[in-house]
Amino acid sequence: MPADPVACPGGSVVVFDPVMTTYDFGPTHPMAPVRVDLTMRLAEELGVTGPDGVLRQVAAPVASDDAIATVHSPALLEAVMAAGRDPRRADYSFGLGSDDNPVFVGMHDAGAHVVGATVEAMRQVWTGEATHAANIAGGLHHAMPGRVSGFCIYNDIAVGIQWLLDNGAERVAYVDVDVHHGDGVERIFWDDPRVLTISLHETGQMLFPGTGFPQDLGGPEAKGSAVNVALPPGTSDAGWLRAFHAVVPELLREFDPDILVTQHGCDTHLEDPLAHLMLTVDGQRATYLALHELAHEVAGGKWVATGGGGYAIVDVVPRAWSHLLAIVGGAPLDPSLPTPDGWRDHVLTSMGQQAPFRLTDGRTPAYRDWRDGYDPNTWLDRAIQATREAAFPLHGLNVHGY
């Protein structure tokens, strides 16, 4: 593995417990918990985790009800607990019992475990016990204060950010690269100027949750605290990276956060069955590298990364998140490496599927820098420019940048 271009002297951790795979909506639901298991198996065989890995694994605590209630209503907690004891008591007014959010026995405990893992990741970094931390089972960014939504019971990210604020953080930056708009985190901190939320996603004109447009900028006390890039379907590595680099770095540098929190749904991939972007694992890896470098540039290296969406559970998720974990650990994986024989054998035996043979999709990500000019005839450039025109003046930044 090549050396990381940015050193991580404090060490890094992954917060994980195998019990977290009990966050399980059932055998026909697209968010299969086996994707997390396959990721952790692949990461260990690649030397990212395990006894000699670059990441130290720490136990994932279960969040208390009081911690979850810092962002969620007591009524929601009661409804989730009731449905988890007896699925016949699912209350649809809380989003429970829908196709997206079927109920299952023990769902409160499963959700609380994910929340606890993310809060622990935040604590590890904020206290200096680790430079970076990851919880790939986290990233449940759609859950609202009083409603489950989009496969998300509780919003672990928002609870973690609230923990940071309650423990002295003055400015928290959140960047969401899932294919779906990070609506829950945005809504929870909509009117809080201490939290900058940036979401790059497929436009809500085409995709759940139907929100996240450039004019969505935060509440009256926090205008500019929400930033949204609504990308056209079909956007691939080059376009996605063009959009990212045209928006994210300038905003983060201006905001000057104490800590960077990121959500890494890998459902932007061209093989993902639930959306319409066209990224490769190589393009996703380039994004992780860019966010890592930005964490060191703008936040003193303090970086917490979570998982998120991703429904190509064999071909994409394990490779994408193994790259993420390796970057969190300070030792990026060579994309040309083969996947280990033992991991491929496990996938074939347990899933009946042929696993990918390499960590790469065979692409070398490149993009045209925004400073080279804006083309109003392309949907992508119009989307980028709309975000810059809406958000940049609120941060004192140059709209054009070329």
From TrEMBL:
Gene3D superfamilies: Histone deacetylase domain
InterPro entries referenced in this protein's UniProt entry, alphabetically: AcuC, HDACs, His_deacetylse_dom, His_deacetylse_dom_sf, Ureohydrolase_dom_sf
Keywords assigned by UniProt, alphabetized: Acetoin catabolism
The protein's annotated pathway: Ketone degradation; acetoin degradation
UniProt keyword Glycosyltransferase, yes or no: no
Residues of the Histone deacetylase domain: 29-326
Any Pfam family the entry gives: Hist_deacetyl
Family of the protein in this entry: Belongs to the histone deacetylase family.
Name of the protein: Acetoin utilization protein AcuC
Lineage: Bacteria, Bacillati, Actinomycetota, Actinomycetes, Propionibacteriales
